[in-house]
Amino acid sequence: MESEKNWYVIHTYSGYENKVKANLERKVHSMGMEDEIFRIVVPMEDEVEMKDGKKKITKKKVFPGYVLVEMIVNDKSWYVVRNTPGVTGFVGSGTKPIPLTDAEVKNILKSMGIEELKPKLNIEVAQVIRITSGAFENWTAKVLEIYQDRSKLKVLVDMFGRETPVELDFSQVEKV
């Protein structure tokens, strides 16, 4: 089921993006669809303006007229989103919405200062792992500490007969 979860772009009346987000969040909650429609985002970025010699930072919509929705598309979820006031339709061909690629989503969320959901790693302290990328690629190491909040871990790499602590991203390791 998880593999069907993707980010989609919905088209809205211009200026209705936040209203659509609020309406859709209410609908999802009232209809108990939290397992099908997950996150609703209006991409914003900071815009710096100079006014009377002072810097003024305002939020500006990155894609006016569009809202991003992370969801599993089925007849019911499609209908709920499509019939939310202010929504004119999904971006895609006909009735089949086209999901954004992972890279597109990552770039959009990163530009907003939102990181994608942090990956969870099913590894424990003292376990031996294999490093899959970076300077120590294909080396094995012992897990010393796990920093779940930063998606990093500290491992001990055996280098020239000495154990050296190295900090790695979750994405750089795998279970042995």
Notes on the structure:
It is extended and about 65 Å long. The chain has helices spanning 17-30, 75-82, 102-111; strands at 5-12, 37-41, 44-51, 54-61, 66-72, 87-90, 92-93, 96-97, 128-131, 140-147, 152-159, 162-169, 173-175. Strand 11 (152-159) and strand 12 (162-169) form a beta hairpin. It has 2 domains: 6-112, Alpha-Beta Plaits; 127-175, Roll (SH3 type barrels). It has a 5-stranded antiparallel beta sheet with strand order 12-11-10-9-13, with no helix packed on it. Strands 2-5-1-6 form a 4-stranded antiparallel beta sheet, with helices on one face. It has a two-stranded antiparallel ribbon with strand order 3-4. It has 3 helices and 13 strands; from the N terminus they run βαββββαβββαβββββ. 18% of the residues lie in helices and 43% in strands. With 176 residues, it is α+β, with helices and mostly antiparallel strands.
From the 3D coordinates, which CATH architecture of the largest domain would you assign?
2-Layer Sandwich
The number of helices is: 3
CATH fold-type name of the largest domain: Alpha-Beta Plaits
Shape from CA axes?
Answer: extended
Write down the Rg.
22 Å
Strand order of the largest sheet: 12-11-10-9-13
Q: CATH homologous superfamily of the largest domain?
A: NusG, N-terminal domain
Percent of residues in helices: 10-25%
Question: What are the low-pLDDT stretches, counting only 5+ consecutive residues below 50?
Answer: none
Give helix and strand order, one letter per element, not per position.
Answer: EHEEEEHEEEHEEEEE
